[in-house]
Design brief:
seven-stranded mixed beta sheet, Phenylalanyl-tRNA Synthetase, Chain B, domain 3, alpha+beta, 28% helix, OB fold (Dihydrolipoamide Acetyltransferase, E2P), five-stranded antiparallel beta sheet, 840 residues
Length: 840
């Protein structure tokens, strides 16, 4: 919102010599953020010039420049015509233009001096609007003063700074959505009064007194909103006034055009300029209809099915049934509060005008503006809330301007159709202000602030009955009033006190496990990554999964970021492969990555989440239903390796990563968490069927899969020929690690070991043999190690020999040979029963 200071001064007293920076600082104190300052930064001489000669001169580069002589009166100290080079062509001999002479400084610190260019000495510059920091006047080039300032006597050498208002300043502010009343000079002036104590004069007061009461033969208007949204009527007031006999050729007065320009709007025509001026002044959007184009009376209703409207921008729009429209007896003529229709547009031939000043529902206008992508100035104000009491005053203001500057006459009849709105009354304890803000506000100060911002305050003691002013639809609760007290009394009064944090218990067990696992992997050379959790069916197919089965377990996104990735991942590996491919494509051949993240896999029927009102804590049944509508989102850990695991160097050639590295990684994680993990062979996609395994805990809990990715998967995904990795259920590891490991005292007794070689079928996993030996060896077994695997001529075909070293130790004595042999024999017997092992 741009606020010209001279316009602001009509509604609030400004101190003599006040600058834009002072006004901006005062507005910041009451919560209106400064966006910028415009004007007042140009120093002369900037004068009116009259073009005497204009000689076009073609240049070698194909450009044509004009060598001009311009009469600038006595402004150059000699009275002689000024020679100026100009590259623009939208002016001619006899035109009045704006000339900046040597010694002047244009906005942005651009100093002007005489300089030689194109074979001439150019003593100044003929100015365009943007060079002076002014909005474009529509010419797209040199300012034509006679057109820009019609009716103004122009003299060569006349000071153009004051003439164009360049000595006036404009403050630009940012208006937050809850302060819609500040999209007007009236609202900003009121806020400046709050900040400085300056006297505020409400322009609506005098206009309302001059506005005639409704009655007479007013234009027929009917409010017929038969489909209100959530019991909110689309239009609750409609004021219509008629002005006849307007001179179509009457231009907007210079002062009005200047103010619109300073406020950032381009003057168009008198009727349009008047409605824009009233909107900027009071905050009430208006619309002007060409009375001759209306068929019968006006009806405010919802759009009919299949109804269309060609709006002022020339677009034929299909209306939605929720759109509120202004219609005559034959068709829709405007989208209420958003944009008018082309058929009833005010044109250069219009002489009779119907002025509309209405009160439209915020939600209705906001939805229509977004639905049709029409972010108009009117919609911006309506959707933030327009003062419902000023429609008649705004219409009166527009009528007076059209009569005064357009030569029109106003009809005696006044239409004012209104549906009363419920009045908001807030029960408020003034002590709450000090309690919540932390500043001891006396009750009298609280009441004074509320009355200062326009509230009506009744009652006394602990309960006040506060009625907010009509222009503040954002004030609906006690905390809203408390915020106003803090704002008006000054945010700087609120002390900055850092709260004392309560004593905490540190990281939760789950956080500790995640941090520990990440540190273990980082210490082993892995880099942690994050991948976007969105996938498509093509990845599932590349992984060798059945697309239909994968899709049945997958959560589909209603509004995906990409149509190619409309699903939420059910495996971290499906998204990590993109990270791996990206790194490899950038020249990193040896890569080790890991990620800790969430997946979402549907494992049963889901229900629809119930609607829960905002600001109300859901009951237990509603919470259960909400949770039942969300699929499980377990936390997983995944890792991938490719290239060399041990880099090449002076020690020799590097060692490529293979599936054994995944076993080592799993073992390291298990040891760090004190959770023994076992890997047994198991073929599962997307891993190689002969180089993959199932990870389980000691109690048989499934923890994940590891191995080498299938060659076909790697080929489909464009990955290197060998990639290994795995995925573990981190939530299960957290649960398994919750039991505190029991520390045992170190024994000073000697150990006793015994080697055993077992003959088993070649398909029997070594892990199964080791598990059986552990269970049979007893409590005094300290460790077990596989130190040899043999398959060859000396043993039966289809068999393999596994040699283990069993280490025993007693805490209180030296074990005897007979005891160790008994432990060993028991272990062998258990292996024989479990996997059919035979001792060699």
């Amino acid at each position: 919102m741009r606020v010209p200071l001279d316009w602001l001064g009509e509604y609030v007293d400004l101190a003599p010599g006040v600058r834009g920076a002072d006004v901006a600082a005062a507005l910041v104190k009451v919560g209106l953020e400064e966006e910028g300052l415009h004007g007042g930064d140009l120093t002369g001489p900037l004068v009116v010039g009259k073009v005497l000669t204009q000689d076009p001169e073609p240049q070698k580069n194909g450009k044509v420049i004009n060598w001009c002589t311009v009469d600038v009166g006595d402004a150059n100290g000699t009275g002689e015509p000024q020679g100026i080079v100009c590259g623009a062509h939208n002016f001619g001999v006899g035109d009045f233009v704006v000339v900046v002479l040597p010694g002047a400084v244009l906005p942005g610190g651009f100093a002007i001096a005489a300089r030689k260019t194109y074979g001439h000495v150019s003593a100044g510059m003929i100015c365009a609007a943007d060079e002076l920091g002014l909005p474009d006047d529509g010419s797209g080039g040199i300012i034509q003063l006679a057109e820009r300032l019609p009716g103004v006597d122009l003299t060569p050498g006349q000071d153009a700074i004051a003439l164009l208002g360049l000595d006036r300043e404009t403050v630009e502010i940012n208006v937050t959505p809850d302060r819609g009343y500040c999209f007007s000079l009236r609202g900003v002036a009121r806020e400046y009064s709050h900040a400085t104590g300056a006297k505020f004069t409400d322009p609506v007061t005098a206009l309302a007194q001059r506005a005639p009461a409704a009655g007479g033969a007013g234009f027929p208007v009917r409010l017929a909103d038969d489909a209100p949204i959530r019991d909110r009527v689309g239009c609750s007031r409609y004021v219509a006034r008629i002005v006849r006999g307007i001179d179509p050729s009457a231009p907007s007065p210079a002062w009005l055009a200047t103010r619109l320009t300073e406020a950032g709007m381009r003057p168009i025509s008198l009727p349009v300029d008047v409605t824009n001026y009233v909107m900027l002044a009071l905050g009430q959007p208006l619309h002007a209809f060409d009375l001759a184009t209306l068929n019968g009376g006006i009806t405010v209703r919802r759009a009919a099915p299949g109804e269309t409207l060609k709006t002022l921008d020339g677009v034929e729009r299909k209306l939605f049934e929720e759109d509120l429209v202004i219609a005559d007896d034959q068709r829709a003529i405007a989208i209420a509060g958003t944009m008018g229709g082309e058929a009833t547009e005010v044109t250069d031939a219009t002489t009779d005008i119907l002025i509309e000043a209405a009160r439209f529902d915020q939600t209705t206008v906001a939805r229509s503006a977004r639905r049709h992508k029409l972010p108009s100035e009117a919609a911006k104000r309506f959707e933030r809330g327009v003062d419902p009491e000023i429609a008649a005053a705004a219409a009166q203001f527009a009528v007076e301007l059209l009569v005064e500057d357009g030569g029109g006459r106003v009809d005696d009849g006044v239409t004012d159709v209104e549906l009363p709105l419920p009045q908001v009354v807030i029960d408020f304890d003034p002590a709450d202000a000090g309690r919540l803000v932390g500043v001891p506000y006396p009750a009298t100060d609280v009441i004074d602030v509320l009355r200062e911002i326009g509230c009506t305050v009744d009652g006394s003691g602990d309960t006040l009955h506060v009625t907010p002013p009509s222009w503040r639809p954002d004030l609906t609760t006690g905390p809203d009033l408390i915020e106003e007290v803090a704002r008006i009394r000054g945010y700087e009064q609120i002390p900055s006190i850092l709260p004392t944090p309560p004593g905490g218990r540190g990281l939760t067990h789950g956080q500790q496990v995640r941090r520990l696992v990440a540190n273990v992997l980082a210490a082993r050379g892995f880099d942690e990554v994050w991948s976007a959790p969105f996938v498509g069916d093509d990845v599932h197919e590349a992984f060798g999964w059945d697309p239909e089965q994968a899709r049945a377990r997958t959560v589909a996104l209603v509004n995906p970021l990409s149509d190619e990735q409309p699903l939420f991942r059910i495996s971290l590996l499906t998204t990590m492969v993109d990270v791996l491919r990206r790194n490899v494509s950038r020249g990193f051949s040896d890569v080790a990555l890991f990620e800790i993240g969430l997946v979402a896999a549907i494992d049963g029927p889901l229900t629809q989440a119930p609607y829960s009102p905002v600001g109300v804590h859901p009951c237990d049944e509603a919470l259960a239903a909400i949770r039942g509508s969300v699929p499980p989102q377990p936390r997983h850990l995944a890792f991938l390796l490719t290239g060399n695991r041990t880099p090449a160097g002076w020690t020799g050639a590097g060692r490529p990563a293979d599936w054994t590295d995944t076993l080592e990684t799993v073992q390291a994680i298990g040891e760090a968490l004190a959770v023994p993990l076992t890997v047994t062979p198991e073929a599962t996609a997307p891993f190689h069927p002969g180089r993959s395994g199932r990870v389980t805990a000691a109690d048989g809990t499934f923890v994940g899969h590891v191995g080498e990715l299938h060659p076909k998967t790697l080929q489909r995904l464009g990955l290197p020929p060998r990639v290994v990795g795995g995925q573990l259920l981190l939530d299960e590891l957290i649960r398994l690690s919750e039991a505190t490991p029991q520390a045992t005292a170190l024994s000073v007794m000697p150990m006793a070991d015994s080697d055993v070689a077992l003959l088993v079928d070649a398909a029997v996993p070594a892990a199964a043999v080791e598990t059986a030996l552990r269970k049979g060896a007893g409590e005094l077994l300290e460790s077990i190690e596989l130190f040899d695997v043999y398959e060859g001529e000396r043993i039966e075909a289809g068999k393999k020999s596994l040699a283990y070293r069993l280490v025993f130790r007693a805490p209180d004595r030296t074990l005897k040979t007979e005891e160790v042999n008994a432990f060993r024999d028991a272990a062998v017997a258990r292996a024989a029963d479990a996997v059919g092992a035979v001792q060699r």
